[in-house]
Amino acid sequence: MDLDWSPADLAFRDEVRRFLDENLTPELRRAGRLSTSVYPDHEASMEWQHILHARGWAAPAWPVEYGGCDWSLIQHYIFDRETTLAGAPALSPMGIRMVAHAIVAFGTEEQKAYFLPRILTGEVFFCQGYSEPEAGSDLASLTMAAVDDGDDLVCTGSKIWTTHATEANWIFCLVRTSKLERKQQGITFVLIPMDTPGIEVRPLVMTSGEQVQNQVFFDQVRVPKKNVLGRVDDGWTVAKYLLNFERGGALGPMLQVLAESLAAQANTQTGPNGGALLDDPAFAARLADARIRADVLEILEYRTMAAISHGKNPGPAASTLKILGTELSQQLTELALEAAGPRGRVYQPHATMPGGPVADFTAPEDGYVSGEEWQAVAPQRYFNDRAGSIYAGSNEIQRNIIAKATLGL
Asked: pTM to 2 decimals?
């Protein structure tokens, strides 16, 4: 594995950097900097998507004929890495990074022609309807019913932890159309407009006070069968395919940026011995461990990239990266909260740019913030990051995958 970029790769990196310098406004950088979770401020995210779409870079991983870029795997990684280092707000993954790939692979020509261009422009904004109150990591146990009624499926049940359901105008759902021998059978993948009669969205207030997640209720919701993606009763195949795109991205650089920022911040705070917190041996050792692990994570991403570029299946590597990335992110948010000190215990979400509204909070009339903005962000990120080891398949499930695929257990 050669870790040196080729001259062509370096030229592409410079092109991306110029684009970012010219198009990332201070407001967009602020949205990225003050983001409190993996989901940034919705308006900033959509503005950035429109800028990327105008350049033809909103969905580089899509097939070229649908608006993607004819990039090498290295170029994709460079693009992700540079946008992360530049502090760009993230794009919502539900449409561009997730369901669009399933539409390309399993959709009809009519579905592709309708959804793909509208996902690019943001006219269609998806949320994900997978988890249920009694079906989270064991997703195949889902029970939301879809009863065959001529040209329609009539859906009744609920989905939970549905991110940005209040902003989305479409939801992709897994529903139960049959009860067969194996619970993975009899599941269907459907695309549903959020304004369909019978749909109700109830926001969930997280420990951070933010309302990004929701529970969505379906009461006799009629869904045309033309909105089924793939085949009826074979939605598990579509869902497994989509999961290949849910885990990934340049996690190493993102965590390196967080670690470097934390080091600078800790150098301004007083430690237990009266000097800078960064000079405290216990804190410095934990931060050094996190920085080393971030570098190792990036190397593992390189190795996975190299395997894919040679036509190999990365196998359990995706599970390994998911575990390492989310648990390291949690470690860094713990250190950031410690570095923030007493001001990190002040609840002041008005100094951040969360991915959704904050419940039952009134900002000071003068906008006063105790401490610096990073100290206001630290507790919000800490609370939100607790979910990292659960979403996209819990880390316990990922360890089971590794044990089975690598150790044969």
From this structure: 0.88
